[in-house]
Amino acid sequence: MTGRLIATGALILFFVLVAGCVENGDGPVAPSGLTEDEKAEAVRIALANATVQDYLHGDYEIADVDYNTVTHAFRGVERSETVPTVAIKTKDAQLWVFVDLEKETVVSITKNYIRTPVIMPSVTQPISTPPGGETPTVPPTVPLPTPLDTH
User: Fold this and answer.
1) Quick one: CA dihedral 4, 34, 48, 68, positive or negative?
2) In principle, which of 37, 80, 99, 104 could form an S-S bond with 27, CB 3.0–4.6 Å?
3) What is the tally of structural domains in the chain?
4) Whole-structure pTM value
């Protein structure tokens, strides 16, 4: 559950950052929306890409298909374009595949790994239950004082 929240938060942050690039008036304006045929074509192009196929091991889910902005920087020049984006969820990653429908190519791929956080047991969590039924707890540790004069 926590891993899913982190992935969702990362996805929201990504879209907020990308959306901020469009609203300043310098970037391209997103078209009104994709038709079902355009969405199907974007998914077909994305899934046919060799790099995307390498990332798709086992089960995956097409989470969303919508317009998004991708920015390329080369030799100090930035170029932004709004293209259909296919969001794909796998067991261990979230992919965003940016597609050019006219050229029928993948423009860019972004991959974020889904990490499951390690949950450490609390200090007072029971270690084991003895036969008598009482549950012992781990006492808190007390740091030893540091000697002041060691020379």
Assistant:
1) negative
2) 80
3) 1
4) 0.57
